[in-house]
Design a protein that fits this description.
- It is a single chain.
- This protein is mostly beta strands.
- It has one domain: Single-stranded right-handed beta-helix, Pectin lyase-like (Pectate Lyase C-like), CATH 2.160.20.10.
- The chain contains three helices and 34 strands.
- The strands form two sheets. The protein has a 32-stranded mixed beta sheet that branches.
- The radius of gyration is 21 Å and the shape is globular.
Length: 432
């Protein structure tokens, strides 16, 4: 383990300890209305689930910012709103029974230049937006409700007309976008029914997301929430995800960056690194912790002490044909499986790509360990890459699982090591 990684995890553990042993959720500050709080009801917002409160809520934020900061309080009630923009030194507290519910009118999310899917483009802001908001606190136990069903329906209607329609062609707001911010803590909030990504972190450092739940339908269209990633960690460093629960229609924790044949020259996409996912439960989704689909450099990732109960790939590594990707020092350990997904899913991801006339770039996947895994799952999965991909130093260790499909499909891999791997009661490889 690198010294930097060790130092990060020690500091993250100290932060969680100081916040009450179990993180923010256990701290006194997370259980009481803050003394510096301003209730949106006192600012004129109506919690009847029907009145549009965007102007009132934004006015309360601006009022707090004008006084040097404070906490915006969402009291019990359902407060309908369009996009709102937190200011530096303004925190957000959602009381028990307090709901910020997103408008379903796209006009309530005025288009802006925003980061989405690895690039900046004119698109919708999120319901909750924060930029350069160091020391931001968003905490519960209330709810952010994306009210996403009409947006999902519109996407699936478009997909039926044009099977290759992309997300950007059917704009839907994210639930929260936090960018260019340091020392961010999000605790106990319920993210519900986002029409697109739930929590998008871009260019942030030193983030703790503790005991947050993410829920969006993972059924068949049109009742499935398309691209409802729970967390998109985009060009961020030193992020801890602790004690969270995931049940969404796409990836649970997705590590992102840029994409395309010129991604390596993108100065807006720093490496995503020093990521720690611990003590979480994964119920539904398309990847426990996914690398890609747009990403360049991802390194120093630890996923540990987690439980997977759904049909979700554990290790999902997407290799794009049009992007140079370097994935290094990725570790999954002490995982209990009680679902039907695949343990390994490392392979090319070709849903959308464009070489733009350039030669196929080279990529690297190196030093991946999957250790101390037990339980029942669907398949062992696959490890393979595009011809230009170098995959090396993959270690599978201390694994004892029952699998419906017990054979691991392996392409060209340098130094694939099995140590004490038992599948369906027999040593693996051999005896299968």
């Amino acid at each position: 383990m690198h010294m930097l990684r060790r130092s990060f995890f020690v500091v993250a553990g100290m932060v969680l300890s100081l916040l009450g042993g179990a993180g923010l959720a256990g701290s006194a500050v997370a259980q009481t209305v803050p003394a510096d709080g301003l209730s949106i009801a006192d600012a004129g917002a109506t919690g009847d689930g029907q009145t549009l409160n965007t102007v009132r809520i934004q006015g309360a934020i601006d009022q707090l910012a004008g006084k040097g900061g404070g906490t915006l309080v969402v009291p019990p009630g359902v407060f309908l709103t369009g996009a709102i923009f937190l200011k530096p030194e303004v925190n957000l507290y959602l009381a028990e029974g307090g709901v910020l519910k997103g408008s379903t009118n796209v006009q309530d999310y005025p288009q802006t230049m925003t980061r989405v899917e690895g690039h900046f483009t004119e698109w919708l802001p999120a319901l909750i937006n924060a930029d350069r908001a160091d020391h931001l606190r968003i905490y519960g136990p209330g709810t952010l409700d994306g009210n996403g069903a009409p947006f999902w329906k519109k996407f699936w209607v478009q997909r039926k007309v044009e099977p290759k329609v992309t997300n950007l062609e059917v704009p839907r707001p994210r639930l929260a976008l936090i960018q260019h911010s340091k020392d961010v803590q999000i605790s106990r909030v319920h993210f519900k029914d986002s029409s697109f990504w739930n929590l998008h972190l871009y260019a942030c450092q030193d983030v703790v997301v503790d005991k947050v739940s993410f829920n969006a339908p993972n059924f068949q269209p049109p009742n499935r929430a398309p691209s409802s990633d729970a967390m998109d960690v985009d060009s961020c460093q030193r992020v801890t995800v602790s004690g969270c629960t995931f049940s969404v229609g796409d990836d649970c924790v997705c590590l992102k960056g840029s994409k395309g044949p010129f991604a390596g020259q993108d100065t807006n996409s720093a490496p995503t690194e020093h990521i720690h996912v611990i003590n979480c439960t994964f119920e539904k989704g398309q990847g426990v912790v996914t690398l890609g689909s747009e990403a360049t450099v991802i390194r120093d990732v630890v996923v540990e002490n987690c439980r997977v109960t759904g049909t979700i790939p554990l290790v999902r590594i997407k290799i794009r044909p049009d992007t140079q990707q370097d994935y290094e020092d990725i570790h999954y350990r002490n995982i209990t499986l009680a679902g039907g997904g695949s343990i390994m899913e490392c392979r090319p991801w070709t849903q959308y790509f464009d070489l733009e006339g350039q030669p196929a770039p080279k990529s690297m996947v190196k030093n991946v360990t999957v250790s101390d895994i037990k339980g029942t799952f669907g398949s062992f999965g696959e490890i393979d890459g595009k011809p230009e991909t170098t995959i090396s130093d993959i270690t599978l260790e201390n694994i004892d699982v029952q699998l419906k499909q017990p054979v691991l499909k392996v392409g060209t891999v340098d130094h694939l090591t099995y140590k004490n791997v038992v599948v369906n009661g027999k040593p693996y490889p051999g005896g299968m």
